[in-house]
Structures are given as C-alpha cells and as structure tokens.
Amino acid sequence: VAMETVSLEHQIQSVHRHIAFLKKEQMELLHALHLEILRLQKHCSELTHDLEMKELEARQQEVLDQELEEKCRVMEAQLQEKEKDNLELRKELQHKEMLVAALRSSLRNKERRFLEQLKRRSHRVTILDTELQKQTEAAAYLS
C-alpha cells in the first residue's frame, strides 16, 4: 500500500508537472495568439485605410472625369456653334465675293464706256477746236 501510495504520489506530481507544463504552453500559445491577433488587426486597419484612400481617390477621379466630360461637351457644343458660324461666314464671304466680282465687272464696263465717251468727246473737242480755229482765222481774215 505504501508503494502504491508513493507511486500514486509520483503520478500525481507528474500529472501536476504536466498540468503546469500545459498551462505554461497554453499561456505562451495564448500570448502568441494575442500578438498575432494584434498584428492582424493592425494589418487589417492598414488595409482598410489603404482601401478607403483608394476609394476616395477613385471618387475624386470620377468627379474629375465627370467635370472633364462636361467641359468636353461644352467645348464640343461651342465648336459646333463656331463651325456653324464659320459656315455662315463662308456663305456670306462667297456672296460678297460674287458682289465684288459683279461690281468689278460693272466698273470695267463703266470705265470702258467712260473711256469711249471720253474719246468721242476728245475727238469732238478736237473737231470743235479745229472749227474754232478756222472761224477765228476767218474772222481775223474778215476783220
């Protein structure tokens, strides 16, 4: 019985040592798990922050893209308006060029008629001048 008691006491001490060892291992494991949880929480926070920043940047880029698209639409509308204005101005220019050509032609015709009339008058003046000289000579002769 005494031997059984000693053996039982050794077993109890062995069980207590195993329990103490297991408690120590459990505490170390819990501590390591706690550190891993903290590390993962920190990493998760960093990733969340990065994601929020990327989402913010994406929203800002989206706003910029929308603003640029709106500016492009406005500029395209202005361009179309300017092209329409240019087309009207070209038509007006063509019309005015036709008027200028017609005026030039008319002016050339008037100039040609004027020159012809000037020639006729010059010729008539020459004839009249010659007649006047003859009459002056005749009047001088008669005087």
Automatic annotation (TrEMBL):
<dbReference type="InterPro" id="IPR040370">
    <property type="entry name" value="CCDC74A/CCDC74B/CCDC92"/>
</dbReference>
<dbReference type="Pfam" id="PF14916">
    <property type="entry name" value="CCDC92"/>
</dbReference>
<keyword id="KW-0175">Coiled coil</keyword>
<dbReference type="InterPro" id="IPR039496">
    <property type="entry name" value="CCDC92/74_N"/>
</dbReference>
<protein>
    <submittedName>
        <fullName>CCD92 protein</fullName>
    </submittedName>
</protein>
<feature type="domain" description="CCDC92/74 N-terminal">
    <location>
        <begin position="9"/>
        <end position="63"/>
    </location>
</feature>
<feature type="coiled-coil region">
    <location>
        <begin position="51"/>
        <end position="99"/>
    </location>
</feature>
